[in-house]
Amino acid sequence: MSPTEPSRGLNRRHFLRHAGGLAAFGALAAACGGNTGRPSGGGGGGDGDGVALSQWYHQYGEAGTKEAALRYAKAYTKAGVNVQWTPGDYASKLSSGLLSDKGPDVFESQLNIAMVQSKQVVALDDIIEDVKDDLNPNDLAQNTVDGKVYGIKMIDDPQLIYYRKSLLDKAGIEPPTTIDDLIEASKALTTKTMKGMFVGNDGGLALGGPALWSSGGSYLTDDEKPNFAGPRALQAYAKLHELNASKSILLGAPTDWTDPGAFLNELVAMQWIGLWAMPAILKKFGDDVGVLAFPKLDAQGKDSVYSGGWTQFVSAKSRDVEAAKAFVRWLWIDKTDFQEDWNLSYGFHIPPRKSLAAKATKLQSGAAADAVKLAADHGFTDNPAWTPKMGTAFGDMLTNIIKKGADPAKEADKAQKTAQAELDRLFG
Protein backbone atom coordinates (compact mmCIF):
# COMPACT_ATOMS: atom_id res chain seq x y z
CA MET A 1 0.00 0.00 0.00
CA SER A 2 1.24 3.43 -0.83
CA PRO A 3 3.38 4.76 1.77
CA THR A 4 6.65 5.30 4.16
CA GLU A 5 10.45 6.69 2.96
CA PRO A 6 13.21 7.39 0.58
CA SER A 7 14.52 3.98 0.17
CA ARG A 8 16.48 5.22 3.07
CA GLY A 9 14.58 8.38 3.79
CA LEU A 10 11.48 9.28 5.78
CA ASN A 11 8.21 8.30 4.08
CA ARG A 12 5.29 6.22 5.29
CA ARG A 13 6.23 2.80 4.05
CA HIS A 14 9.63 2.70 5.75
CA PHE A 15 9.31 5.35 8.42
CA LEU A 16 9.87 2.80 11.16
CA ARG A 17 13.28 1.94 9.79
CA HIS A 18 14.55 5.49 10.04
CA ALA A 19 12.76 7.35 12.77
CA GLY A 20 14.77 6.12 15.72
CA GLY A 21 14.04 2.45 16.38
CA LEU A 22 11.17 0.80 18.18
CA ALA A 23 12.91 1.07 21.53
CA ALA A 24 13.87 4.68 20.92
CA PHE A 25 10.85 6.33 19.29
CA GLY A 26 9.56 9.53 20.81
CA ALA A 27 6.74 9.89 23.31
CA LEU A 28 3.48 8.11 22.68
CA ALA A 29 1.23 10.04 20.35
CA ALA A 30 -2.45 10.34 21.08
CA ALA A 31 -4.20 7.10 20.15
CA CYS A 32 -6.73 7.22 17.35
CA GLY A 33 -9.74 5.01 16.90
CA GLY A 34 -10.42 2.82 19.91
CA ASN A 35 -8.69 2.23 23.19
CA THR A 36 -5.06 1.22 23.34
CA GLY A 37 -5.48 -1.61 25.82
CA ARG A 38 -6.50 -5.15 25.14
CA PRO A 39 -10.11 -5.29 24.02
CA SER A 40 -12.81 -7.78 24.93
CA GLY A 41 -13.06 -8.88 21.33
CA GLY A 42 -14.89 -5.94 19.80
CA GLY A 43 -14.48 -5.71 16.04
CA GLY A 44 -13.22 -9.26 15.80
CA GLY A 45 -14.53 -12.71 15.17
CA GLY A 46 -15.74 -15.38 17.53
CA ASP A 47 -14.18 -15.22 20.95
CA GLY A 48 -13.20 -18.92 21.11
CA ASP A 49 -12.17 -19.71 24.66
CA GLY A 50 -12.51 -16.08 25.68
CA VAL A 51 -9.20 -15.10 24.10
CA ALA A 52 -9.05 -11.47 22.97
CA LEU A 53 -6.28 -10.28 20.62
CA SER A 54 -5.31 -6.77 19.58
CA GLN A 55 -3.93 -6.29 16.06
CA TRP A 56 -2.29 -2.97 15.18
CA TYR A 57 -1.93 -1.38 11.73
CA HIS A 58 -0.67 1.99 10.60
CA GLN A 59 -3.06 3.90 8.34
CA TYR A 60 -2.75 2.80 4.73
CA GLY A 61 -3.51 5.32 2.03
CA GLU A 62 -5.56 3.09 -0.27
CA ALA A 63 -9.34 3.05 -0.08
CA GLY A 64 -10.72 -0.20 1.26
CA THR A 65 -7.70 -1.31 3.27
CA LYS A 66 -9.20 -0.64 6.69
CA GLU A 67 -12.41 -2.40 5.73
CA ALA A 68 -10.39 -5.38 4.50
CA ALA A 69 -8.43 -5.60 7.76
CA LEU A 70 -11.67 -5.52 9.75
CA ARG A 71 -13.20 -8.18 7.51
CA TYR A 72 -10.26 -10.52 8.01
CA ALA A 73 -10.38 -10.09 11.78
CA LYS A 74 -14.13 -10.73 11.87
CA ALA A 75 -13.71 -13.97 9.95
CA TYR A 76 -11.43 -15.45 12.62
CA THR A 77 -13.40 -17.75 14.92
CA LYS A 78 -10.81 -18.94 17.46
CA ALA A 79 -10.38 -15.60 19.23
CA GLY A 80 -11.79 -12.12 19.27
CA VAL A 81 -9.56 -9.79 17.24
CA ASN A 82 -9.75 -6.04 17.71
CA VAL A 83 -8.15 -4.04 14.91
CA GLN A 84 -6.44 -0.80 15.93
CA TRP A 85 -6.03 1.43 12.84
CA THR A 86 -3.67 4.29 13.61
CA PRO A 87 -3.57 7.52 11.60
CA GLY A 88 -0.62 9.79 12.27
CA ASP A 89 2.30 8.78 14.45
CA TYR A 90 2.00 5.01 14.45
CA ALA A 91 5.69 4.69 15.27
CA SER A 92 5.44 6.39 18.65
CA LYS A 93 2.27 4.55 19.56
CA LEU A 94 3.85 1.23 18.68
CA SER A 95 7.07 2.02 20.53
CA SER A 96 5.18 2.75 23.72
CA GLY A 97 2.82 -0.16 23.25
CA LEU A 98 5.58 -2.72 22.91
CA LEU A 99 7.02 -1.67 26.25
CA SER A 100 3.84 -2.41 28.19
CA ASP A 101 1.11 -5.00 28.52
CA LYS A 102 -1.38 -2.56 26.96
CA GLY A 103 0.13 -2.85 23.50
CA PRO A 104 -0.65 -5.14 20.58
CA ASP A 105 -0.60 -8.91 20.48
CA VAL A 106 0.01 -8.74 16.74
CA PHE A 107 1.43 -5.76 14.84
CA GLU A 108 2.99 -4.67 11.58
CA SER A 109 6.44 -3.11 11.31
CA GLN A 110 9.87 -3.81 9.81
CA LEU A 111 12.39 -5.89 11.75
CA ASN A 112 15.26 -4.24 13.56
CA ILE A 113 17.78 -6.32 15.46
CA ALA A 114 17.08 -4.21 18.56
CA MET A 115 13.57 -5.65 18.61
CA VAL A 116 15.09 -9.10 19.03
CA GLN A 117 17.79 -8.11 21.50
CA SER A 118 15.26 -6.31 23.72
CA LYS A 119 12.87 -9.29 23.49
CA GLN A 120 10.00 -7.34 21.93
CA VAL A 121 9.12 -10.04 19.40
CA VAL A 122 8.96 -13.83 19.39
CA ALA A 123 10.34 -16.26 16.81
CA LEU A 124 7.80 -17.68 14.36
CA ASP A 125 9.76 -20.61 12.93
CA ASP A 126 7.27 -23.15 14.24
CA ILE A 127 4.31 -21.64 12.38
CA ILE A 128 6.10 -21.28 9.04
CA GLU A 129 8.10 -24.51 9.04
CA ASP A 130 5.88 -26.35 6.55
CA VAL A 131 5.71 -23.41 4.11
CA LYS A 132 9.17 -21.92 4.49
CA ASP A 133 10.21 -23.02 1.00
CA ASP A 134 7.25 -21.09 -0.40
CA LEU A 135 8.32 -17.78 1.14
CA ASN A 136 10.38 -15.25 -0.77
CA PRO A 137 14.04 -15.79 0.26
CA ASN A 138 14.71 -12.03 0.50
CA ASP A 139 11.75 -11.65 2.83
CA LEU A 140 13.01 -14.46 5.03
CA ALA A 141 16.50 -12.94 5.13
CA GLN A 142 15.27 -9.53 6.24
CA ASN A 143 13.30 -11.10 9.09
CA THR A 144 15.98 -13.51 10.32
CA VAL A 145 18.33 -12.90 13.25
CA ASP A 146 20.71 -15.60 14.51
CA GLY A 147 18.98 -18.21 12.38
CA LYS A 148 15.48 -17.52 13.72
CA VAL A 149 12.62 -15.96 11.74
CA TYR A 150 10.71 -13.26 13.63
CA GLY A 151 8.21 -11.94 11.09
CA ILE A 152 6.01 -12.92 8.17
CA LYS A 153 6.02 -10.49 5.26
CA MET A 154 2.57 -9.22 4.29
CA ILE A 155 3.36 -7.37 1.05
CA ASP A 156 6.38 -6.81 -1.18
CA ASP A 157 6.60 -3.32 -2.66
CA PRO A 158 9.28 -2.81 -5.31
CA GLN A 159 10.07 0.81 -6.15
CA LEU A 160 10.81 1.74 -9.75
CA ILE A 161 10.94 4.51 -12.33
CA TYR A 162 7.71 4.86 -14.32
CA TYR A 163 7.95 6.63 -17.68
CA ARG A 164 5.75 7.61 -20.60
CA LYS A 165 6.92 5.72 -23.67
CA SER A 166 5.47 8.27 -26.08
CA LEU A 167 7.32 11.14 -24.44
CA LEU A 168 10.66 9.35 -24.67
CA ASP A 169 9.93 8.55 -28.31
CA LYS A 170 9.06 12.19 -29.01
CA ALA A 171 12.33 13.30 -27.41
CA GLY A 172 14.24 10.70 -29.44
CA ILE A 173 15.74 8.94 -26.42
CA GLU A 174 15.89 5.37 -25.22
CA PRO A 175 15.02 4.24 -21.68
CA PRO A 176 18.07 5.06 -19.51
CA THR A 177 20.54 2.28 -18.75
CA THR A 178 23.03 4.24 -16.57
CA ILE A 179 22.69 7.07 -14.06
CA ASP A 180 24.25 9.46 -16.58
CA ASP A 181 21.59 8.37 -19.10
CA LEU A 182 18.92 9.07 -16.49
CA ILE A 183 20.20 12.59 -15.88
CA GLU A 184 20.36 13.31 -19.61
CA ALA A 185 16.89 11.83 -20.18
CA SER A 186 15.44 13.98 -17.41
CA LYS A 187 16.94 17.06 -19.05
CA ALA A 188 15.71 16.08 -22.52
CA LEU A 189 12.16 15.47 -21.25
CA THR A 190 11.92 18.83 -19.49
CA THR A 191 9.71 21.36 -21.30
CA LYS A 192 7.99 24.63 -20.43
CA THR A 193 5.03 22.72 -19.00
CA MET A 194 6.63 19.52 -17.72
CA LYS A 195 9.69 18.46 -15.76
CA GLY A 196 11.64 15.40 -16.72
CA MET A 197 11.30 13.50 -13.46
CA PHE A 198 9.84 13.50 -9.95
CA VAL A 199 11.85 11.80 -7.20
CA GLY A 200 10.31 13.50 -4.17
CA ASN A 201 9.97 17.01 -2.85
CA ASP A 202 13.23 16.56 -0.94
CA GLY A 203 15.14 16.30 -4.22
CA GLY A 204 15.73 12.57 -4.29
CA LEU A 205 16.63 11.12 -0.89
CA ALA A 206 14.56 8.09 -1.82
CA LEU A 207 17.20 7.24 -4.42
CA GLY A 208 20.08 6.88 -1.94
CA GLY A 209 19.74 3.14 -1.43
CA PRO A 210 19.19 2.32 -5.11
CA ALA A 211 22.13 4.52 -6.10
CA LEU A 212 24.34 2.76 -3.57
CA TRP A 213 23.37 -0.66 -4.91
CA SER A 214 23.78 0.56 -8.50
CA SER A 215 27.45 1.19 -7.71
CA GLY A 216 27.93 -2.36 -6.43
CA GLY A 217 27.80 -1.40 -2.76
CA SER A 218 25.35 -2.23 0.01
CA TYR A 219 24.49 -0.90 3.44
CA LEU A 220 26.42 -3.64 5.21
CA THR A 221 28.61 -6.54 4.15
CA ASP A 222 27.59 -10.14 4.83
CA ASP A 223 29.75 -10.06 7.97
CA GLU A 224 28.04 -6.85 9.16
CA LYS A 225 30.55 -4.13 8.29
CA PRO A 226 29.68 -0.74 6.71
CA ASN A 227 29.72 -0.97 2.94
CA PHE A 228 28.30 2.35 1.77
CA ALA A 229 31.35 4.66 1.72
CA GLY A 230 33.52 3.21 -1.04
CA PRO A 231 34.77 5.29 -4.00
CA ARG A 232 32.10 4.01 -6.38
CA ALA A 233 29.33 4.69 -3.87
CA LEU A 234 30.61 8.25 -3.51
CA GLN A 235 30.38 8.63 -7.29
CA ALA A 236 26.77 7.49 -7.18
CA TYR A 237 25.85 9.99 -4.45
CA ALA A 238 27.51 12.75 -6.44
CA LYS A 239 25.36 11.78 -9.44
CA LEU A 240 22.25 12.26 -7.28
CA HIS A 241 23.43 15.78 -6.54
CA GLU A 242 23.98 16.31 -10.26
CA LEU A 243 20.41 15.18 -10.94
CA ASN A 244 19.06 17.46 -8.23
CA ALA A 245 21.00 20.43 -9.60
CA SER A 246 20.00 19.80 -13.22
CA LYS A 247 16.75 21.81 -12.96
CA SER A 248 15.00 18.89 -14.63
CA ILE A 249 13.31 17.41 -11.56
CA LEU A 250 10.03 18.56 -10.11
CA LEU A 251 10.10 20.17 -6.68
CA GLY A 252 7.16 21.43 -4.64
CA ALA A 253 4.63 18.93 -5.97
CA PRO A 254 1.22 18.82 -4.22
CA THR A 255 1.94 15.29 -2.97
CA ASP A 256 5.22 13.46 -2.43
CA TRP A 257 6.81 10.66 -4.46
CA THR A 258 4.74 7.92 -2.79
CA ASP A 259 1.64 9.31 -4.51
CA PRO A 260 1.30 9.10 -8.34
CA GLY A 261 -0.32 12.53 -8.61
CA ALA A 262 2.63 14.25 -10.29
CA PHE A 263 2.77 11.55 -12.98
CA LEU A 264 -1.01 11.27 -13.41
CA ASN A 265 -1.39 15.04 -13.77
CA GLU A 266 1.35 15.09 -16.42
CA LEU A 267 3.65 17.32 -14.42
CA VAL A 268 6.53 14.93 -15.20
CA ALA A 269 7.50 12.39 -17.83
CA MET A 270 9.07 10.01 -15.28
CA GLN A 271 8.44 9.33 -11.61
CA TRP A 272 10.05 7.22 -8.90
CA ILE A 273 7.27 5.33 -7.07
CA GLY A 274 6.25 1.87 -5.94
CA LEU A 275 4.32 -0.93 -7.59
CA TRP A 276 1.33 0.07 -5.45
CA ALA A 277 0.62 2.94 -7.88
CA MET A 278 0.44 0.72 -10.97
CA PRO A 279 -3.38 0.35 -11.24
CA ALA A 280 -4.02 4.10 -11.18
CA ILE A 281 -1.22 4.78 -13.65
CA LEU A 282 -2.34 2.06 -16.08
CA LYS A 283 -5.92 3.32 -15.87
CA LYS A 284 -4.75 6.76 -17.01
CA PHE A 285 -2.07 5.88 -19.58
CA GLY A 286 -2.54 2.24 -20.52
CA ASP A 287 0.19 0.78 -22.72
CA ASP A 288 2.02 4.12 -22.82
CA VAL A 289 3.63 3.24 -19.48
CA GLY A 290 7.01 1.58 -19.01
CA VAL A 291 8.99 0.81 -15.87
CA LEU A 292 12.73 0.82 -15.13
CA ALA A 293 14.95 -0.34 -12.34
CA PHE A 294 17.18 2.37 -10.95
CA PRO A 295 19.96 2.24 -13.58
CA LYS A 296 23.47 1.06 -12.89
CA LEU A 297 26.22 3.57 -12.15
CA ASP A 298 28.22 2.44 -15.18
CA ALA A 299 29.16 -0.70 -17.08
CA GLN A 300 30.63 -2.19 -13.89
CA GLY A 301 27.52 -1.44 -11.84
CA LYS A 302 24.13 -3.10 -11.62
CA ASP A 303 20.49 -2.13 -11.92
CA SER A 304 18.72 -2.01 -8.54
CA VAL A 305 15.17 -2.31 -7.24
CA TYR A 306 14.47 -1.62 -3.58
CA SER A 307 11.63 -3.78 -2.29
CA GLY A 308 9.87 -2.46 0.78
CA GLY A 309 6.68 -3.55 2.48
CA TRP A 310 5.30 -4.49 5.87
CA THR A 311 5.77 -7.52 8.08
CA GLN A 312 3.54 -9.10 10.73
CA PHE A 313 5.01 -9.78 14.19
CA VAL A 314 3.85 -11.23 17.50
CA SER A 315 4.64 -9.18 20.59
CA ALA A 316 6.60 -10.95 23.30
CA LYS A 317 4.36 -9.11 25.79
CA SER A 318 1.18 -10.62 24.39
CA ARG A 319 -0.98 -12.08 27.12
CA ASP A 320 -1.40 -15.18 24.95
CA VAL A 321 1.56 -15.62 22.64
CA GLU A 322 0.38 -18.97 21.30
CA ALA A 323 -3.06 -17.61 20.44
CA ALA A 324 -1.44 -14.63 18.71
CA LYS A 325 0.84 -16.93 16.72
CA ALA A 326 -2.14 -19.08 15.72
CA PHE A 327 -3.95 -16.01 14.39
CA VAL A 328 -0.89 -14.88 12.41
CA ARG A 329 -0.53 -18.40 10.99
CA TRP A 330 -4.20 -18.41 9.97
CA LEU A 331 -4.16 -14.97 8.34
CA TRP A 332 -0.76 -14.89 6.63
CA ILE A 333 -0.17 -18.57 5.89
CA ASP A 334 -3.49 -20.44 5.71
CA LYS A 335 -5.87 -17.79 4.31
CA THR A 336 -4.44 -17.47 0.85
CA ASP A 337 -7.63 -15.77 -0.40
CA PHE A 338 -7.14 -12.96 2.11
CA GLN A 339 -3.46 -12.70 1.20
CA GLU A 340 -4.34 -12.36 -2.49
CA ASP A 341 -6.95 -9.74 -1.67
CA TRP A 342 -4.53 -7.72 0.48
CA ASN A 343 -1.81 -7.77 -2.18
CA LEU A 344 -3.85 -7.21 -5.33
CA SER A 345 -7.10 -5.39 -4.55
CA TYR A 346 -5.76 -2.14 -3.07
CA GLY A 347 -2.98 -1.13 -5.40
CA PHE A 348 -0.57 -3.79 -6.65
CA HIS A 349 1.94 -5.62 -4.44
CA ILE A 350 3.83 -8.85 -4.99
CA PRO A 351 2.54 -11.61 -2.69
CA PRO A 352 5.40 -12.84 -0.47
CA ARG A 353 4.28 -16.44 -1.01
CA LYS A 354 5.96 -17.66 -4.19
CA SER A 355 2.98 -19.85 -5.08
CA LEU A 356 0.60 -16.89 -4.85
CA ALA A 357 2.89 -14.58 -6.78
CA ALA A 358 3.12 -17.16 -9.57
CA LYS A 359 -0.64 -17.17 -10.13
CA ALA A 360 -1.32 -13.45 -9.61
CA THR A 361 -2.91 -12.79 -13.00
CA LYS A 362 -2.98 -9.00 -12.46
CA LEU A 363 0.82 -9.06 -12.41
CA GLN A 364 1.33 -11.27 -15.45
CA SER A 365 1.18 -8.82 -18.33
CA GLY A 366 2.42 -5.43 -19.45
CA ALA A 367 4.19 -3.02 -17.16
CA ALA A 368 3.11 -4.94 -14.06
CA ALA A 369 4.84 -8.09 -15.31
CA ASP A 370 7.92 -6.05 -16.18
CA ALA A 371 7.99 -4.67 -12.64
CA VAL A 372 7.77 -8.14 -11.11
CA LYS A 373 10.64 -9.36 -13.30
CA LEU A 374 12.79 -6.34 -12.45
CA ALA A 375 12.22 -6.98 -8.75
CA ALA A 376 13.14 -10.64 -9.15
CA ASP A 377 16.27 -9.89 -11.17
CA HIS A 378 17.57 -6.81 -9.36
CA GLY A 379 15.81 -6.66 -6.00
CA PHE A 380 17.39 -5.82 -2.66
CA THR A 381 15.78 -5.25 0.73
CA ASP A 382 16.47 -4.33 4.34
CA ASN A 383 19.12 -5.88 6.57
CA PRO A 384 17.83 -6.29 10.16
CA ALA A 385 21.26 -5.24 11.45
CA TRP A 386 20.80 -1.82 9.81
CA THR A 387 19.40 0.19 12.71
CA PRO A 388 17.31 3.38 12.66
CA LYS A 389 20.32 5.31 13.97
CA MET A 390 22.33 4.12 10.98
CA GLY A 391 19.44 5.07 8.72
CA THR A 392 19.31 8.56 10.18
CA ALA A 393 23.05 9.03 9.64
CA PHE A 394 22.73 7.76 6.07
CA GLY A 395 19.80 10.11 5.44
CA ASP A 396 21.71 13.09 6.85
CA MET A 397 24.62 12.20 4.59
CA LEU A 398 22.33 12.16 1.55
CA THR A 399 20.68 15.44 2.48
CA ASN A 400 24.02 17.21 2.71
CA ILE A 401 25.32 15.73 -0.54
CA ILE A 402 22.19 15.92 -2.70
CA LYS A 403 20.71 19.21 -1.57
CA LYS A 404 23.76 21.11 -0.32
CA GLY A 405 26.50 19.79 -2.59
CA ALA A 406 28.67 18.72 0.34
CA ASP A 407 31.78 16.61 -0.19
CA PRO A 408 30.59 12.97 -0.49
CA ALA A 409 33.77 11.57 1.08
CA LYS A 410 33.50 13.70 4.22
CA GLU A 411 29.78 13.07 4.62
CA ALA A 412 30.12 9.32 4.08
CA ASP A 413 32.97 9.15 6.58
CA LYS A 414 30.76 10.69 9.27
CA ALA A 415 27.90 8.30 8.51
CA GLN A 416 30.25 5.34 8.44
CA LYS A 417 31.59 6.18 11.92
CA THR A 418 28.03 6.25 13.26
CA ALA A 419 27.26 2.93 11.61
CA GLN A 420 30.42 1.32 12.98
CA ALA A 421 29.65 2.57 16.48
CA GLU A 422 26.20 1.03 16.21
CA LEU A 423 27.62 -2.28 14.99
CA ASP A 424 30.14 -2.29 17.85
CA ARG A 425 27.30 -1.70 20.29
CA LEU A 426 25.20 -4.48 18.81
CA PHE A 427 27.86 -7.12 18.21
CA GLY A 428 30.77 -6.12 20.45
From TrEMBL:
<keyword id="KW-0813">Transport</keyword>
<dbReference type="InterPro" id="IPR006059">
    <property type="entry name" value="SBP"/>
</dbReference>
<dbReference type="Pfam" id="PF01547">
    <property type="entry name" value="SBP_bac_1"/>
</dbReference>
<dbReference type="InterPro" id="IPR050490">
    <property type="entry name" value="Bact_solute-bd_prot1"/>
</dbReference>
<protein>
    <submittedName>
        <fullName>Multiple sugar transport system substrate-binding protein</fullName>
    </submittedName>
</protein>
<dbReference type="InterPro" id="IPR006311">
    <property type="entry name" value="TAT_signal"/>
</dbReference>
<keyword id="KW-0762">Sugar transport</keyword>
